[in-house]
Amino acid sequence: MNTSLWQQGQSISYRAAISNNKNFDVVIVGGGFSGLWSAYHLKQLQPELSIAIFEKEYVGFGASGRNGGWASAEYPTSNARLIKEHGRQSFNALRFALISAINEIGEIAAQHNWQIDYAKGGSLLFARNAAQLSRISANVDSEHTLLNKSQTQDLINIPTAVGGLFTPHCAALNPFALARSLATYLQAIGVEIYEKSPVSKIMAGKVEVNGYEVASSISIRATEAFTPKNWMGNRQIPIYSLMVATQPLPSDVITQIRNFQRTTMQEACHLITYAQITGDNRLAIGGRGVRYKLFSRLSERSEIDNRMHSALERRARSWFPQISDAKFEYRWGGAVALTRRWQAYLNFDRKTGRAEIGGYVGDGVTLSYLVAKTLAKSICNQQVEDLPFIEEKIGKWEPEPIRYLAVNAGFKATVAADLEEKITNRPSILASIIDPLINR
Ligand SMILES: Cc1cc2nc3c(=O)[nH]c(=O)nc-3n(C[C@H](O)[C@H](O)[C@H](O)COP(=O)(O)OP(=O)(O)OC[C@H]3O[C@@H](n4cnc5c(N)ncnc54)[C@H](O)[C@@H]3O)c2cc1C
Q1: Going by CA atoms, what residue is nearest to atom 25 of ligand 1?
Q2: What is the DSSP letter of 141?
């Protein structure tokens, strides 16, 4: 079973593949949010541009069609590091732009009547032990409010929650529906989309696709974690995130859980977990922890890991005893791209016309929109703000097998840190050792 809930067994009818040599102003490689939003914003700024998107499978095949559906204002790099390395002004500009982008996505979807189950109910990071509570209490700021136990449980009825940190800046949505609706719209305004069309080479002034040459003055690599390995060298690695989803929950269970605003939720543990109640009343929950593959191999087998999927189901039931009878109907997964220092990147070389965007880790739903919008402005010679991801110098990962050993030891240590906190009720000593090494 490896079907994302969002596709719900829809059979995909592929758009045509490319069948002759062609010429465009802009060629985009990758039919996920990065590629689609790039085309969208370029067309907004210069409707006369001829644009083609080449997707090796089908639009939404990658992480964009399979994710947790959080359009959040989260960013992979920590606030402290962003401020230290980019300055307060760039940091503030990023926060404002991300928060605005969540609304813009909702507005664009509403304007075109896309059925993407968008609900802006904010997000809750909840604590289930004293260690988690002390950690979230230290993160109150102008975007985050601390809730006590009863306020937390009034918002979402998680009986074991002892407190929570709430931000209004998050929307839940159906990501596959967003990718597909966006693609249909782009085609209607003249963007050419080719599926089953893997790009084999990106060169200055042209790309090679299915044996044909496609010339363009600008090319955008928007392939994120699904980038062929020889294109990125050691600059990013794929990390798997897995998800499960229940059957639609009966209305009495939904009433018991509360969460009428569809607030997204996450436990304040070290190992990332995230969930939403979907538009059709399912609980969809995801998390990381699947072993990283030697030499950064992408592997469909890593998308299905019975141990990890079962652990997610157990975690969901431990949050919500109300769903103890619910059946889990979907199990799936996908990869996110992690750079050595957790940096998202937008690199555009005007001389060669080549651009690359990505490195969002698990925060790409809103961030890909913002990065693509910023890139479109740069390409169209519009002024852009000084945002941290622009022309970020991406370092290299350590060579194998050091990388393999370190990344997987990191996962193990994260799980151990959560266990340590559960037992001791104190912030993990292990986490305080690994956090600086993880280098967020
Ligand atoms: C399970 C999971 C849960 C997640 N949850 C969230 C979440 O809740 N919120 C959030 O913000 N982020 C989340 N993310 C991350 C988010 O989904 C991604 O950051 C985002 O979708 C990346 O979009 P993208 O367009 O850059 O890449 P992708 O959507 O991965 O698209 C890249 C595309 O490039 C194509 N491609 C690759 N090579 C070629 C080639 N040679 N030629 C042509 N096409 C090619 C691929 O087929 C793919 O379709 C999650 C990711 C996963 C896997």
Answers
A1: 32
A2: B
Residue nearest to atom 10 of ligand 1 (CA): 363
Report the C-alpha gap between 410 and 279 in whole angstroms: 35
pLDDT digits (tens, 9 = 90+) for 143-156: 999 999 999 999 99
Among 12, 59, 64, the mutation site with the greatest number of ligand 1 atoms within 8 A of its Cβ is 64
Per-residue confidence band for 289, with pLDDT thresholds at 50, 70 and 90: confident
Query: Which residue lies with its CA nearest to atom 13 of ligand 1?
Result: 362
258: its two tokens: 């509360």
Q: What angle do CA 105, 216, 21 make, to 5 degrees?
A: 115
289 lines ligand 1 (CB under 6 A): no
CATH code of 120-171+236-339+400-438, in short, is: 3.30.9.10
Domain segments of the chain: what residues? 120-171+236-339+400-438
Mean pLDDT of 360-383: 97
Q: Which of 122, 126, 108, 113 is nearest to 373 (CA)?
A: 108
